[in-house]
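Example 9 (inverse folding). The structure is encoded as follows.
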């Protein structure tokens, strides 16, 4: 107590009660994580790196929404509505990034890219919620000009009022990944990080190396460098990448799924119309459910298993609150 009184005298607050002092000290301690979170982006910039996106806690009406129907746009809107509506994710004045798969020079019917109607529906929902700007882009595998046009996404984005752009190589900045991560300082597209809301919109399809391309793998489209190297130790890398980007909302386009010869496809015999859209905040759960559309056990997909083990989400479909709707 003598030491405490001495401290009060030195600090010029001799009239402050011990309870008030302890309360103020507790409040100061509680603010440390927030202060550190605010400082991290500045530290990253000083080091010439991009800091990870902050984690946002959004309370939803269910863990996952699975909607089936004839119209891609309608089932997309219903899926977002079922988890609580776009206003839970997008606030007035927000800059939103919608990241579809536009990687391949294929028409929508081949299910190599995200369905353009799904993308357009999400853009309109964002603007309805008050978004200031909605950006759409992907680091394509084939010619960007051909991919954007033949996928139907460029036209759909423009009609919905979104802003579509080709990748600007100068916007790739080394990411500040944790020490020991196999991603090291992998270059990440700045616009994917410096946004208020990130919506990941993959198409569900087969992949020759990772077996399936779903939401976690779709994030490779924000990476620069030699992306082929990501396939080495891919399960850990995709887990670290998902933790870095922290998508606010995952919407999986499973209207048409590519069963074989992915990721580029090209044969309609490999395509199945499941007419489904999956939406939720847990990318691991979304991917786990999407895997079942292929008859695949979620735990057999390495990045799904790794994501669950790393605490990014759950692959326990049976224990999740999943709302299924048919329209």
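The amino acid assigned to each position is listed next.
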């Amino acid at each position: 107590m003598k030491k405490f009184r001495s401290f009060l005298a030195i600090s010029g607050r001799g009239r402050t009660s011990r309870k008030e002092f302890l309360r103020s000290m507790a409040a100061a301690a509680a603010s440390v994580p927030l202060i550190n979170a605010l400082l991290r982006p500045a530290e990253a910039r000083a080091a010439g790196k991009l800091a990870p996106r902050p984690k946002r806690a959004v309370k939803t009406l269910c863990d996952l929404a699975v909607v089936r129907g004839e119209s891609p746009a309608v089932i997309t809107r219903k899926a977002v509505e079922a988890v609580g509506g776009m206003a839970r994710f997008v606030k007035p004045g927000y800059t939103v990034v919608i990241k579809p798969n536009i990687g391949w020079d294929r028409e929508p019917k081949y299910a190599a890219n995200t369905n353009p109607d799904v993308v357009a529906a999400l853009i309109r929902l964002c603007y309805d919620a008050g978004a200031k700007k909605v950006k759409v882009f992907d680091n394509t595998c084939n010619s960007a000009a051909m991919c954007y046009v033949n996928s139907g996404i460029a036209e759909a984005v423009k009609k919905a009022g979104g802003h579509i752009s080709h990748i600007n190589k100068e916007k790739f900045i080394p990411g500040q990944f944790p020490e020991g991560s196999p991603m090291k300082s992998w270059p990440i597209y700045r616009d994917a990080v410096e946004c208020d809301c990130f919506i990941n919109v993959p198409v569900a399809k087969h992949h020759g190396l990772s077996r399936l391309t779903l939401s976690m793998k779709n994030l490779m489209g924000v990476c620069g460098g030699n992306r082929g190297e990501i396939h080495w130790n891919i399960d850990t890398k995709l887990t670290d990448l998902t933790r870095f980007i922290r998508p606010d909302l995952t919407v999986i386009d499973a209207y048409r799924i590519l069963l074989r010869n992915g990721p580029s496809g090209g044969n309609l015999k490999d395509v199945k119309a499941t007419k489904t859209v999956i939406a939720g905040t847990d990318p691991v759960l979304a991917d786990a459910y999407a895997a079942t559309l292929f008859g695949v056990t979620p735990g057999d997909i390495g990045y799904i298993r790794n994501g669950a083990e790393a605490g990014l989400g759950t692959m326990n479909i049976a224990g999740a609150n999943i709302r299924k709707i048919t329209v």
